[in-house]
Amino acid sequence: SGDTRVGLVGFPSVGKSTLLTALTGTRSEAAAYEFTTLTCIPGTMKYKGARIQVLHLPGIIEGAADGKGRGRQVISTARTCNLILIVLDSAKPVTHKKIIEAELNSFGIRINQKPPEVKLIKREQGGIDYQQMVPQTKGMNADVCRSVLKEYKISCATIIIREDITVDQFIDVIEGNRAYIPVLYVFNKIDALTIEELDILDQMPNYVPISSQHQWNLEELMDTIWDRCNMIRIYTKPRGQIPDYDEPVIMHSESNPTIEEFCNRLHRDLINDFSHAFVWGRSAKHQPQRCGKDHVLMDEDIVTLCKKT
Asked: Which terminus of the chain has fewer Cβ atoms in its 10 Å neighbourhood, N or C?
């Protein structure tokens, strides 16, 4: 278990086992032949006070989404992660990246995308009510919407579209089972590359070059994992004592964590006795600020909880 979960996905023999050992210290067998790892191996890495669970998934091959090489089990485990690291061998063709992207996409994982701003409300009667708030330039219109809904046997619904979307994105909304997960491309074995080849790789977005065998650039990889998972640290401060900087409570900033959620992370019954909180840090207008349970916390805030008397 951990505060966030990261999955290592990639072809066989790209250095996932060595990377897991370098990051977490967990022994994962590494050998010169493919498919050395046949089961999911978990490890825990500590960084900035957070416990990050790293899952080493067996190597996937082309056709994994159709069940080849136990690919369905591997990709369905990847769906549960907060971040996916696609590990690639720098010396091998970049087409491997496209193959893995296609496998994840066909299994319902949308990488580095946000859920489309589309509201679909099914009704008992009244036909199709199509509303678009912005002009559609990617092929979406009322007729396309009706024909897609007809395929899914939906005859009465209200559709409100608040951004420019493709037909595929609209189908994702109807299906409702897509996982939107951030992805980081980790190019391993950079010790085999020249500076010129590294410059070419450097033009790619969302990528980190490393060498897990020589432990090059692992600090930047950990820092990028921290940023992409949107983790924030909240320190607890008992009354009359100094804050506990060793064991922060880790929360995720994309959900705008409130003091109520912070209480629930500590103990689910704590909110029943909650009276108010004193907050020091960036989210406070003055130090300290007396706050209620709806106050939104920011990174490295210090919180003292006060119970009802």
From this structure: C
